Amino acid sequence: MDELAQYLIEKIIVDFDGEVNTETVREFLRKDSSPTARALLQKIIEEKGIDDLMLALADCLTANISANVGPDVIREHLLTYSES
Description:
Blueprint: H1 2-10, H2 22-31, H3 35-47, H4 51-68, H5 71-83
Helix pairs in contact: 1-5, 2-3
């Protein structure tokens, strides 16, 4: 189980539902007057969309999930599944 849990952690991929689109993200950012929101909006405009943003965010989240969801959590879910 330990090796399986570690393998699954290494293979975790974060994906976003198809409803996340450039216009929706831009609308949220337009409502936010903070300097960070303005900078992000500008970058999205320069890059002509959110594709790079979403890929970078997914990569970062995957790393965070891997750091915070360890083999114990994976084993627990595997055990729960096997008992259901």
